[in-house]
Each structure stands twice: as C-alpha cells, then as structure tokens.
Amino acid sequence: MSRGQYPSTRMRRNRMTAFSRRLVAETRLDTADLIWPLFVIEGQNIAEPVDAMPGVFRHSIDQLLQQAAKAVELKIPAIAIFPSIDAALKDETGSLARDGDNLVCRAVSAVKAAFPDLGIICDVALDPFTSHGHDGLLDQDEILNDETIAVLCEQAVHQANAGCDIIAPSDMMDGRVGEIRTALDAAGHQNVQIMAYAAKYASGFYGPFRDAVRAGASLGKAGKSTYQMDPANSDEAMHEIALDLAEGADMVIVKPGMPYLDILARAKAEFGVPCIAYQVSGEYSMLCASFDKGWLDRERTILEAMTCFKRAGADAVLTYFAPEIAMIIRR
C-alpha cells in the first residue's frame, strides 16, 4: 500500500472547511434554548448593579419590563424572575411569600400584561423572604419539611394567580412537587407547568446569586446541606428525579450546570424528559472574571459552554448570558 493511500479514513476531511464543519455539527444552538434569569427590586427607575455578577442588575418593575421587551425582541422564549427583598420585610417564617401582592407577584402581573406570549418562570422557595436565608421554615437547626411545603403551596398558587406559566420549586423539600401540583389543580391552574429543581446540589457556586437576592448571610454551620444534595452523589440524583416526575413534574432542572454535566447526561438518558441546566451565578462570575483578565475569549467560551450543555442533553439552559448568546446567534 502506497503512502498516498494511507489512511483511507481521514477524520479531518470533514473539519477542513467552515461550511463542512457546519454541515456535520451534531449539536446546534438556537435562541429557543435560552431562559434568562432576571432580578427584580422595589422602586422606580432602578437598575442596581450586582457587585458579584458583572453586567447583571436588580431591576425595578418598570425597568424589568424593558428587559422583558429585549427578551421578546431577541426571541428568548422565557424569563425567570427572582426577587431581591428589603431586609426590613423579611422574617423568620418568610411570611411575605404568602402575600399575593408581593414584589414577585406584581412583577409577574406587569410582565404578563405587557408581553402575554413571553414565558414566565417563578422560583418557589422561601430563601428570598426569610431573615435566616434558608429555603424553609426553621426550628432551631432543623428545616421543617412538611410545614414548609404548606407555605410553598400558597406561594405557588399566588404566583400562578399572578400569571406565572411555570412554577419552579427549588427548595428540595421531600414531597413538595406532588403537594404543589395538587394545590395548583385545586386553584384551577391545571395547565401551569412544574419545572422541578430535582437535582439541586449544596454547591459553592451559588455565592453571587445570594448576593443578588440578598439572602443566605445567616445559614449556620451546615448551610443548606441538610436538604440540598451532596456533590459526591450521582445515583441519589436519579432517585430524586424519579420521585419528582412521579409526583407530577413536567420537566427537571440540574443545578449547577457545568460541574454536573454527568448528572445532566444521566438524567436525559435514563428518563427522556425535558431536562434543563442552570448555568449558575458562580459559573457566570468565574467566566466574567477570566474575560476581564483577558485569559479567555469571551464569545468563543460562552458558546462552547452552551454547546456543552446541549451536547450533554439539556433541552434549555438558564443563563445570565442569554441576551448575549441570542445576539451572537442572530448575527
């Protein structure tokens, strides 16, 4: 065999030109893959920067509407609204979560009235509303599971009443998905979806988010490890996902994103349901710090991260880069 005939299979042929690489790409990005997390704050005409998240702001409702308009213009299908509550309004039981006229409900109503076709996702958990920053009711050092669920059900119904399309329980209480589904149905919200944070890990990557919503300063020695998952566990995540699906979840979230691509891939392969990745605040801020230093190419790295989520099985990704990604795709 002459040297010119060897090898007969050359994997590089398909990579030689830009058009060919596009033709054979196995994973493609689209604006339909994006969910944009946004922070809302009380007041008027406020766009308050989040120190730990460059380029991210807490918006008053009037400014939030401008961000929603941008999402619509960029064809981003859904936004996730997270409230930043004044410390004076927080208490031990997160009672403001049970108020149908609270900040997040008013924000949802305003966005839905202005942009009825834009999907709205609401976090269901008590941490933005509690003075201690935990996701549930606290009795000394114990998070009360069943008592917390009763409050979460009220919170979910208020959000659905306000116009929320997808309820996203992020608290990790056992059995909450089924109870929330029952409460939503009883309130006439049979078509409101549940996107369960089924595999939410007790991660060190959440710090900038807690700064953004001003929560979590008094979590105690154990933090949230008594209810969020141990980063060492994978099989347990599959058990959590199976339980949430059995209780009525329509889709599931794996959080954080990039450090847990193996969990995302397993979830998609084993359950074949809509799986959502959350590129969390720590991932975002870590990348932004590298961009600021000139250590990583911004556009290339952002798109590569998104491609990794999609390749691992994500049907959509919550990412603070959403508008930037949408503009890149459109261009």
Query: What is the CATH-assigned architecture?
Result: Alpha-Beta Barrel
Q: Output the strand order for the largest sheet.
A: 1-4-5-8-9-10-11-12
Rg over C-alpha atoms, rounded to the nearest angstrom: 21 Å
Which overall shape is indicated by the principal axes computed on the Cα atoms? globular
- The poorly predicted ranges are none
N-to-C span: 48 Å
Per CATH, the superfamily is Aldolase class I
Biggest sheet descriptor: 8 strands, parallel, barrel
Number of helices: 11
Give the beta-strand count: 12
Helix fraction?
25-40%
Average pLDDT? 93
Could you say what the CATH topology is called? Answer: TIM Barrel
Computed structural class? alpha/beta
Specify the CATH class.
Alpha Beta
Order of helices and strands: HEEEHEHEEEHEHEHHEHEHHEH
Describe the protein in words:
With 331 residues, the chain is of the alpha/beta class. It has one domain (27-330): TIM Barrel. It is built from 11 helices and 12 strands. The protein has helices at 18-24, 61-73, 103-114, 145-162, 176-186, 207-212, 235-246, 261-271, 281-293, 298-312, 322-330, and strands spanning 34-40, 47-49, 57-59, 78-83, 119-124, 137-139, 142-144, 166-169, 193-200, 251-255, 275-278, 316-318. An 8-stranded parallel beta barrel has the order 1-4-5-8-9-10-11-12, surrounded by 8 helices. The protein has a two-stranded antiparallel sheet with strand order 6-7. Helix 2 packs across helix 3 and helix 8 runs parallel beside helix 10 (298-312). The longest helix has 18 residues, at 145-162. It is globular, with a radius of gyration of 21 Å.
